[in-house]
Write a structure and sequence with these properties.
This protein is α/β, with parallel strands linked by helices. Helices cover 36% and strands 15% of the residues. It holds the Pfam family Flavodoxin_2.
Length: 197
């Protein structure tokens, strides 16, 4: 497979019931310059091929971390991926320059509303506060941290809402145009046969 400048690290243990993340991953996978690496499909036994993951990251200009939040954090397999793949001496620390200069974009969904993630809400903090470890990770690796795309109340979105999310993410990755959601719908339709988990 040829190198792609955008790599999406997609972690979703419940992908087959996914309302937003799976359609988004499928739409992104249909783009010619994007490689979606579905961690749960690749590593159902959690035995991560570190060399293969590092090779994919080395070829990318932009790394996207896409996931539903799990207890205010990333899903367990994504945390394991970070621990094993982003090795000291490769991604950070002395000699760890492999990711320096690349962009990092987080796309995270929640079941809670935006109001839930506010000082007055049940979770008392914006989701950005819970993403601070990822921002610090990116900075430690010499990456450019881009403002996260947060999908609140994801399971309540209707079809037009899902298409708006797809269009927003595609736009952030340089694939936006005047057609917006219509273009996103076409990409999602093209991706239907990819059968991401």
């Amino acid at each position: 497979m040829p190198a792609r400048p955008i790599v999406v690290i997609y972690a979703n243990a419940r992908a087959r019931r996914s309302h937003v993340n799976r359609p988004l991953a499928e739409a992104l996978a249909a783009l010619p310059d994007v490689e979606v690496r579905d961690l749960h499909a690749r590593y159902p036994d959690y035995d991560i091929d570190v060399v293969a993951e590092q090779r994919a990251l080395s070829c990318a200009d932009t790394v996207v971390l896409q996931f539903p939040t799990f207890w205010f954090s990333v899903p367990p397999l994504l945390k394991l991926w970070m621990d094993e793949v982003l090795e000291r001496g490769w991604a950070h620390g002395p000699g760890g320059t492999a990711l320096r200069g690349k962009s990092c974009l987080v796309v995270a969904s929640t079941r809670g509303t935006e109001e839930d993630y506010s000082p007055e809400g049940v979770h008392r903090h914006p989701l950005a506060s819970f993403l601070l470890p990822l921002e610090q990770m990116a900075l430690e690796c010499g990456m450019t941290w881009r403002p996260p795309i947060v999908i609140h109340d994801a399971y309540r979105l209707d079809e037009s809402g899902v298409q708006r999310v797809i269009a927003e993410v595609m736009g952030a990755l340089g694939h936006g145009d005047a057609d917006g959601p219509a273009n996103a719908a076409n990409a999602a339709s093209t991706a239907a046969s990819l059968e991401l988990a």
